[in-house]
Prior knowledge:
Blueprint: H1 16-31, H2 36-39, H3 45-48, H4 52-65, H5 77-92, H6 104-107
Helix pairs in contact: 4-5
Pfam families: DUF7677
Domain DUF7677: 13-110
InterPro entries: DUF7677
Amino acid sequence: MARKLRMMPWMGHLSVDVRASLRLFAFYLANGTLDLDLLDGFDYRSTVFHSGSSLEQVFAIYSNVLQIDADGMVLNDGDAQYRVAQWVRACCDPSYRVEPPFEDWETELHL
């Protein structure tokens, strides 16, 4: 039996632009093509997909950094992806230093 989704009048959806950004981010991440300039030569997928907590951190950073205007348009997808790429690079390359260092709000996991 199919379950019907009921929207409350006060509920909204993510804008098409936000959904497209999330979809492309997930595609690049899974495809191994996230920020090729920073991650060239690093096959980070085994690191990121090794445990749920690493993947959880990746999406937390992306969504915490992502900025959206009042019309639901994404303002800084490249910046959000770059910050994730920096975190991934630091996991794969202990000599890499994230600049600027992450602030607490960037890596916060929301429950």
